[in-house]
Amino acid sequence: MSRCAHTHTAPPAAPRLTLAPWCAIVLLVAGCAPTIAPYSPVAFEKAVDMKVDALRLMEQAEEPAADHERKIAALKRDLDRAWEFAKGRPRNEHSARQWELMRDPDAHLLGGFLARWEKEGALRPVFIFESQRLISLAFDAIIGLESGKLKPSDV
What we know:
The chain is mainly alpha-helical. It is built from six helices and no strands. Helix 4 (about 95-105) runs antiparallel to helix 6. The termini are far apart.
């Protein structure tokens, strides 16, 4: 018998471990992780309080800003604190960006309103009214974003 006549059978293949099921599990778990910070009752309360304070102070803008210097400074400080608080929370970029826009003295929200009031001394009623509407909506967006976040008990 020649050596060529023998048929060789390969040994049975060892079971292969595939990474596909493990990758799917990792992606599933990562996909379930929240992509935004959880609800903060402190952030919610501060946003509501600041909205009320801001709109009330804006009603005074027909008067000289110098007459309300302390209240304007306090409101600016509150804006800075809210922005710093939002910025310091993990996965809270959306809220931090909203506060950044709200406080920006070169924009058209509260920071810009206060800067204009200080620059011009007093503002016209129509401008105040329209600014209040716009700023109120911006606060509502901040408040809505916070209230829409998952509560720790929901996770």
